[in-house]
Amino acid sequence: MKFSYLTKLGTASAALVMASAMASGAIAQDTSDWPDSVTVGTASQGGTYFIYGAGWADLVQEELDIRTSSEATGGPVQNMALVNAGDLEFGMTTMGPGYDSWIGENEIAPGVEMRDVRALFPMYQTPFQIIALADSGIDSVDDLDGATVGVGPRGGTPGTYFPRFFEQLGIDIEPQYGGASDLGSQLQDGLIDAFAFGAGIPIAAFSEVAAQRDVNIFSFNDEQIQTLLDENPSLAPFTVPGDTYDAIQEDQDTVAMWNFAIANKEIPKSLGYEIMKVVLDNNDRMMEVHKSAKETLPKHYDKNSFMYFHPGAVQYFREKGYEIDEDLIPPEMK
Q1: In angstroms, what is the C-alpha Rg of the chain?
Q2: Cα separation of 283 and 297, whole Å?
Q3: Residues 6+ apart with CB under 8 A from 195
Q4: Of 56, 88, 257, 289, whose CB is crowded by the most CB atoms within 10 A?
Q5: What local confidence, expressed as pLDDT, does residue 28 receive?
Q6: Per the omega criterion (within 30 degrees of 0), is the bond before 202 cis?
Q7: 219-263 pLDDT per residue, tens
Q8: What is the rounded distance in angstroms from the CA atom of residue 203 to the CA atom of residue 195?
C-alpha cells in the first residue's frame, strides 16, 4: 500500500478503514502493476474540462490511494496526442477531435493514427454557444460577419470547430485563440467582438462575464443548425435550458458533441476498471464537481462508435449488462 492518509491513523482505525475499503471492492484489485502517480489532461482555465478533469482526478486519488493530478492543456486535440504518446496517462476528448485523431487527421501530428488511446467513461455533451456584450448589438451568428471572435485555445474543440463552422455557414470572422478565462477578459475589455465556445454547461467563463456585464448569449438558427448537422457527422442537436444563464430566458437550440475520458493503452486493466467504478458509481459526487456530470452515466457508453474501449471499461460495462460492439474491443483483449 502506498503512503496515504491511513498512515496518519492509529493501527486500529487504519485496519477499520482498510476493511471497509476491501468490503466495498475499492482496493480489491491487485495494484502491484499500478504506476506511482498519474496525470489527467484537461484544457484551459475557465472551461468545463479544467473543472471536471480536476474533479475526477481528485476523486480517484481519494478513493484509490494513487497520486493523481490534473494538467491544463490545449484541450481535446492535444490530449489525444499526449495520451497516445504516453506523455499523459489520462485525458479527455470530444468525439469529433477524437475521431479526427483516430484516423490520422490530428493537426498536431498529421498522418499519425492515434490508436494507442482507449476510451473510458462517457462524460457529457459539449454544446456550442456564443457570448457578446449587450451594448455591441451582436445577438446572432449573422452579426459576426467581419468580426473578431474568440474561439478558445488552438487544439481545443471550439478552437478547432468554430472556425470550421463559420466557414461552412459563409460567415467571415477573424479568429482569436486563447484560454477561456483570457478570452472572457478580452471580451469585457473590447479587444474582441464576441467569444464562441463549447463546453459543459454552464460554461464558467460565460458565467463570469455575465456576472459583471449585460450580455447576449446566442447560438445558431434552425437553418444553420441543419447545415452543420449535414456537414459534421460527429454533431448532434442539443437544447440549452433557459435557466442555464440569466441572459437566456428561453430554451436555446444548438449543436453539441459528446465527450469521453481516455487512457493510454498501457494503463493496467485493473486501474482502468477501478476508475470506471469510482466515477460512474459515484454520480452524486461527480455532480458536486460540475452540473454537466448529470450525463456521466454508464448508459451513454454507446456514444463512442469508433475508439477501442480500455479493457477495464469493457469489464465494467459488461458487468453492468451492456454489450460492447466487437469492433470496439481492443486488440490486447483478443
Answers
A1: 21
A2: 7
A3: 130, 131, 132, 149, 150, 183, 184, 186, 187, 205, 206, 209
A4: 56
A5: 56
A6: yes
A7: 999 999 999 999 988 888 999 999 999 888 899 999 999 999 999
A8: 12
Whether residue 133 is found in the same domain as residue 114? no
Q: What is the pLDDT of residues 176-226, one digit of tens each?
A: 999 999 999 999 999 999 999 998 899 999 999 999 999 999 999 999 999
Mean pLDDT of the region 66-84: 95
* Claim to verify: residue 97 and residue 209 sit in the same structural domain: no
Q: CA 143 to CA 212: how far, in whole Å?
A: 23
Contacts of 127 (CB under 8 A, 6+ apart): 198, 201, 219, 238, 240, 254, 255, 256
For residue 312, what are the domain limits? 36-125+259-333
Q: Tens digits of per-residue pLDDT, 100-150?
A: 999 999 989 999 999 999 999 999 999 999 999 999 999 999 999 999 999
Any idea which residue has 456584450 for its cell?
Answer: 133
Boundary of a domain, candidates 257, 274, 297: 257
What's at 274, amino acid-wise? Answer: E
Rounded distance between C-alpha atoms, residue 313 and residue 332, angstroms: 13
142 and 43 in a single domain? The answer is no
> Is the pLDDT reported for residue 325 higher than 80?
yes
β-partners of residue 149 are: 175, 194
Look at residue 267 and tell me whether its pLDDT is greater than 70: yes
